[in-house]
Amino acid sequence: MPVYKYKAINEKGKSIQGVLDAESPKSATEKLKRQGVFLSSLKEVKKEKPRSFSLFRGISTSELALTTRQFSTLISAGLPLEASLVALSEQTEDVRLSQVLTQVRDSVSEGSSLANALKEHPNEFSDLYVNIVRAGEASGTLDIVLLRLADFLEKQQALRSRVRGALAYPIFMFVIGSGVLFFMMSYVIPRIAKIFEESRKALPVITEVLIGLSNFFSENLFALFVIFAALGFVVYKLTKTERGKVFFDRLTLRFPIFGRIARMVIIARFTRTLGTLLGSGIPLLNAIEIGEAVVGNKVYTETLRSVRENIKEGTSIAGPLRESGVFPPLVTRMIDVGEQTGELEEMLIKIADTYDLQVETSVSTLTSLLEPIMIVVMGVLVGFIVFAILLPIFDLTSTIGK
């Protein structure tokens, strides 16, 4: 059904704007009249493609977190559910989110529960989000679980932003350095090589090596591009297969330094998700099943699936996690203590906070080491090129001087 963005004046003479779905502009106008507002402009909104970089595809995590917190505030203030959804759809500046909230409101108006209405939009609201909302509706604590969900989303976004910020400079340096080397090897060196050839003088070994590398790079540029593109395509196809995913996920965990950081990110994500779900009233088995989907690593997904099967047979969660070998002793001991004291949710959140801090510290340390290493490597490469070019030039000038 088409979605329209409108501007109108309400009964109090105040200008309002929002979005609604209707079969045609005429039906949209009639719909607004029934709501007691006077239309001033109406424009059909084209649906945007979902953005793949978002944790909840289609809407940025930061925007979803802000809207969820506002939703919690409106509900706790006593505003009815439908009115809250209307206010949210008018408040948000994200067109896609405004469309979705309007459709959710219409589903709720037709008698659907909020969780079922959200479930109709899987690209925008994950199973985790829907299940937490469902638990809040069932327990009558929707405002509280929405607030907890907003905290969860903001923590996830904050960690992601800090990691991206720490890696931004090294990535920028790598891109610029690679661009400079590509330009020199493909454009500058071949032209300087022609000057040396015309002089017909014997060149130093270092210069011959540089010219040989430049010639190989220039003559085989297309072939190298095809080879790397083919390798990238093969790797991409392999990651789409079950065995390929398991292989690359195992390989990721075995990388020096990066593998350790990946493990910490996975553990923080899982424990925070599980703690948030349990704190919202989701049963343990269902919470672990949702946790399997958010860890993003087949090794841990298979481990958690096995843990879930063991729990069905009556064991605790700490035992199977300890036997799996992929969770550190600190994690399993803290979970064991949480189970024994009846504070499992709080203990899981503490674990997540601890590992979030470790991730941030590790990434900061890594980037602080990468920056000088990259500068030294770039300096050596540029120095090699400059020295290889200047050495024969000095020979030519000394010959002319004699």
List key phrases describing it:
402 residues, mainly alpha, Receptor-associated Protein, 3-stranded antiparallel β-sheet
3D structure, described in words:
This protein has helices at about 25-35, 60-75, 80-90, 95-110, 115-120, 125-140, 140-200, 205-220, 220-240, 240-255, 260-280, 285-295, 300-310, 320-325, 330-340, 345-400, and strands at about 5-10, 15-20, 40-45. The protein is mainly alpha-helical and about 400 residues long. It has three domains: about 5-45; about 60-155, Up-down Bundle (Receptor-associated Protein); about 175-400, Receptor-associated Protein. The protein has a three-stranded antiparallel beta sheet with strand order 2-1-3. The protein is extended and about 90 Å long.
- Poorly predicted runs are 47-57
| Structural domain tally | 3
> Average pLDDT, to the nearest integer?
82
CATH architecture label of the largest domain: Up-down Bundle
Number-wise, the strands total 3
The helix-and-strand class reads mainly alpha
Please tally the helical runs, counting DSSP H or I stretches of 4 or more residues. 16
Instruction: Give the overall silhouette.
Output: extended
Strand portion: 5-15%
Tell me, what is the CATH class of the largest domain? Answer: Mainly Alpha
The succession of helices and strands, N to C, reads EEHEHHHHHHHHHHHHHHH
- The rounded Rg comes to 29 Å
Taking the sheet with the most strands, its summary is: 3 strands, antiparallel
* Spatial order of strands in the largest sheet: 2-1-3
Distance between the termini: 86 Å
Question: Into which percent range does the helicity of residues fall?
Answer: over 70%
Fourth CATH level, the homologous superfamily of the largest domain = Type II secretion system (T2SS), domain F
CATH-defined topology of the largest domain: Receptor-associated Protein
